[in-house]
Amino acid sequence: xxxxxxxxxxxxxxxxxxxxxxxxxxxxxxxxxxxxxxxxxxxxxxxxxxxxxxxxxxxxxxxxxxxxxxxxxxxxxxxxxxxxxxxxxxxxxxxxxxxxxxxxxxxxxxxxxxxxxxxxxxxxxxxxxxxxxxxxxxxxxxxxxxxxxxxxxxxxxxxxxxxxxxxxxxxxxxxxxxxxxxxxxxxxxxxxxxxxxxxxxxxxxxxxxxxxxxxxxxxxxxxxxxxxxxxxxxxxxxxxxxxxxxxxxxxxxxxxxxxxxxxxxxxxxxxxxxxxxxxxxxxxxxxxxxxxxxxxxxxxxxxxxxxxxxxxxxxxxxxxxxxxxxxxxxxxxxxxxxxxxxxxxxxxxxxxxxxxxxxxxxxxxxxxxxxxxxxxxxxxxxxxxxxxxxxxxxxxxxxxxxxxxxxxxxxxxxxxxxxxxxxxxxxxxxxxxxxxxxxxxxxxxxxxxxxxxxxxxxxxxxxxxxxxxxxxx
Length: 473
Description:
The chain is an alpha/beta fold. The protein is built from 15 helices and 23 strands.
């Protein structure tokens, strides 16, 4: 059978663009399907890029507030400026994912929605195209919880909040995950009175419990955090909205100018016509094997739509694997054990591998835990940023199975641990690396030194060394 394309990529986000560019570079005839006007996906337009621009602007406002008393008008002006900075940042980054770049690679771009007619045929707008292989990279969208009355009021999601130009006086954020806490803190620092409603016993429930508890305590100094709380009903209250909620069995309510829904994500697969292609989905995501293939072996799925890890760098990693498998016929497998992520609150949170509780369940007595408080590090003491912690989890021989930190810039200086793990080196090897003093990553080498203290000075070897020194040296 003759096909129009060797590879058709559905979705122009991080994963899809990686696949399309890689496949074209290998000489494949490629089509890229994107239903929106611009390429770049959720990360560029509604996620990573705008949120980081907003977080930085809010941090600068927070720093300014330490040295001068800001007025209501000041906050209004700063809010407008922050949103303008977000827009400017998006325009700058958009150039990296311009359509011309991909067209120049020989890729045909279709600006329409794609839906399968069968396992080799796709309806794209009013056109029909065929392909030997497909890669689905349609991403995800905000999940909206079934709260009574929510659909009858105007609410924000990460797809609409960055279009705000007038600062709300107050905001209720439903959801205390990564998106919820990052945007909550930024909005609070821009002068918005923020309340977070989270159903679990702590915000950032996927983080190591000790880390998330410290983060919640610090966040509570800037905004109101309600955990073990469920939003039950929403209604209009004049120009505002009233949220009725239950906390610890007791009913209460709070009124705010607006609501931000940050209650998780859902895969964008509902309009793909998966059943017509015979593609299996489960729990709202496309099912794939370790090689990122669906049950239809010529169709792959990468990024948020396959339910793995909802991060841009993961979609990019999966895209590289899908290219080599789909184009070159390899069977490379995706592994998620060595993938870190960062929560860009202030202070930042770094997460790699297992939490302490997960590691204890898996490794039991073979688990070693090494911790250093930032208050015990000279650089953090000098900068008066002492609130924070480094926690490294290893096996008895030093294999890194988990690494966690909360501290100023943790996403940068903790990646040294991730690099060591990726290179299959032992944690204690960091002790042999000379770190400039007083760089912030000194706190990592301090923690690595604890391994030797545990192994040498807390063991029978210490008695032998002491005997040797006393008798022979």
